């Protein structure tokens, strides 16, 4: 099964305009088998078999013929995505769709957007009319319902994924067929032609052993399952979907694995628009991601204007060069989880250190009050940004020292003071620093490979792409952990007396 297939293709219904929110009901012959007469159910099965054999099957001989076979098709039912967009009102633009090979011969090449002519910073590369942009107000047919759903039970991604799954049921008769076909072709793959770890096997997830990202993948997977179980809510509340598919309840029409694949495909290409209503803030934009590559140090963004979504480039491009856009201030763990790539030059990359005051400490409540007074919580998350590890350690030290205070008189002095500085004895300072050293060393020991081993693996030009992107991620995490260790050792080296033993700390803060 293809990783980002939105659903098994079958069914047809009448074609509609993208701007028409009330959707026509399906004819009785295409309703669910449990509502159909025997001859109708049989006809439906035959239709599904015909669809699966002839249309929308990624990797099939028919579609693998690429541009040659597509020349025989015409109108919105065939041709490339850009031609379809122009036929539907896309104004002249300065980009072209190109392709590069996939790392796996079983997969079709990756499409990407490149400049069709030389561009200067400030040029409008393209402007996609709102009529060709998929947003929740279109999906649900009601802006109020869109806001209600997405602020309570379901994410925008789940709603958009469900909509495309239903749209794909119409096959070539769906208005969005060329766009959905392109999403299927991309299969949720990132710049390295790698799918999100949400679609990796257990063996492949082992590449992330030692990294907190593996737990994030499993947590996200559980979140997708919870959203799947709430899909029927969307169907009942969205008048458009209910009218078009009155007997196709989502959790009965689509297995979880199909929904998960659709969710990941939408996740890899959804755009977060600014200065628009909640019902339009998440959008699927043809010519946008995944055809546009993300770059952390880029400042170009897809922007909503009065009647379109446009891209203004932030740098000059030569004709044929791939165009990149900003992916937001996301760490590499999020880039891998959402888009299947890691950015080695990501200034927003970070690791997380969670520190918490010991709840068994008799002075826990007093310490919690002092922490809150200084802008910290009883369970405090510290973000350690790449290149700013020393700053992070400096921020952690006062919090850790507070946790080590044990004498009631000292605690009273801390409560009376107005600043974050606790009275620090030499043995307490050494205990705090030793705990930090032990914590960072334990995290590094949790990885199955060392930093030097990772660097050696990345020199292998034949390394499996999924393993390559995973090794890139853990290598960058280890570099930050080593930098944290180095920062702690620098503080230790500044201690006036290195013979002082650390104080015992029965209620030391806990680090995760």
UniProtKB/TrEMBL annotation:
Signal peptide: none annotated. Gene3D superfamilies: Rubisco LSMT, substrate-binding domain, set domain protein methyltransferase, domain 1. InterPro entries: Rubisco_LSMT_subst-bd, Rubisco_LSMT_subst-bd_sf, SET_dom_sf, SETD3_SETD6_MTase. One of its GO terms (cellular component) is chloroplast stroma. Keywords: Methyltransferase, S-adenosyl-L-methionine, Transferase. One of its GO terms (molecular function) is protein-lysine N-methyltransferase activity. Pfam families: Rubis-subs-bind. PANTHER family: RUBISCO METHYLTRANSFERASE FAMILY PROTEIN (PTHR13271:SF9), UNCHARACTERIZED PUTATIVE METHYLTRANSFERASE (PTHR13271). This is Ribulose-1,5 bisphosphate carboxylase/oxygenase Large subunit N-methyltransferase, chloroplastic isoform X1.
């Amino acid at each position: 099964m293809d990783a980002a297939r939105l659903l098994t293709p079958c069914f047809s219904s009448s074609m509609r305009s993208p701007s028409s929110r009330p959707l026509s009901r399906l004819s009785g012959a295409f309703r669910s088998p449990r509502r159909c007469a025997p001859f109708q159910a049989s006809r439906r099965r035959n239709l599904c078999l015909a669809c699966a054999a002839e249309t929308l099957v990624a990797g099939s001989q028919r579609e693998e013929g690429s541009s040659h076979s597509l020349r025989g098709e015409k109108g919105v039912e065939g041709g490339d995505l850009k031609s379809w967009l122009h036929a539907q009102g896309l104004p002249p633009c300065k980009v072209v769709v190109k392709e590069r090979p996939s790392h796996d011969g079983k997969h079709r090449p990756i499409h990407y957007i490149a400049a069709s002519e030389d561009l200067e910073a400030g040029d409008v590369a393209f402007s996609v009319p709102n009529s060709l942009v998929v947003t929740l107000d279109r999906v649900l047919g009601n802006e109020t319902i869109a806001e209600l759903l997405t602020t309570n039970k379901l994410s925008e991604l789940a709603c958009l994924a469900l909509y495309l799954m239903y749209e794909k049921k119409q096959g070539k008769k769906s208005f969005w067929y060329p766009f959905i076909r392109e999403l299927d072709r991309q299969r949720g793959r990132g710049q390295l032609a790698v799918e999100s770890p949400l679609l990796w096997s257990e063996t492949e997830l082992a590449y992330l052993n030692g990294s907190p990202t593996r737990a994030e993948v499993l947590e996200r997977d559980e979140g997708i399952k919870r959203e799947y179980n709430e899909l029927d809510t969307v169907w009942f509340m969205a008048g458009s979907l209910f009218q078009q598919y009155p007997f196709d309840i989502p959790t009965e029409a689509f297995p979880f694995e199909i929904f998960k694949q659709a969710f990941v495909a939408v996740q890899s290409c959804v755009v977060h628009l600014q200065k628009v209503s909640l019902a339009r803030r998440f959008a699927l934009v043809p010519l946008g991601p995944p055809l546009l590559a993300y770059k952390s140090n880029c400042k170009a963004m897809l922007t909503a204007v009065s009647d379109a979504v446009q891209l203004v480039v932030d740098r000059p491009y030569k004709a044929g060069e791939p165009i990149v856009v900003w992916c937001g201030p996301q760490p590499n763990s999020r880039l891998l989880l959402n888009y299947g790539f890691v950015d080695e030059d990501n200034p927003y990359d970070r690791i997380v250190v969670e520190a918490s005051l010991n709840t068994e400490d008799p002075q826990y409540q007093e310490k919690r009050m002092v922490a809150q007074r200084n802008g910290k919580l009883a369970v405090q998350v510290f973000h350690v940004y790449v290149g700013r590890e020393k700053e992070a350690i400096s921020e952690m030290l006062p919090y850790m020292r507070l946790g080590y205070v044990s004498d009631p008189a000292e605690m009273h002095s801390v409560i009376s003071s107005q600043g974050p500085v606790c009275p620090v004895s030499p043995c307490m300072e050494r205990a705090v620093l030793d705990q930090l050293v032990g914590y960072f060393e334990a995290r590094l020991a949790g990885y199955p490979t060392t930093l030097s081993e990772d660097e050696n693996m990345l020199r292998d030009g034949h390394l499996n792409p999924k393993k390559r992107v995973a090794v890139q991620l853990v290598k960058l995490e280890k570099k930050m952990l080593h930098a944290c260790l180095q920062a702690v050792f620098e503080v230790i080296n500044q201690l006036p007396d290195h013979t002082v033993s650390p104080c015992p700390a029965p209620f030391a803060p806990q680090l995760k």
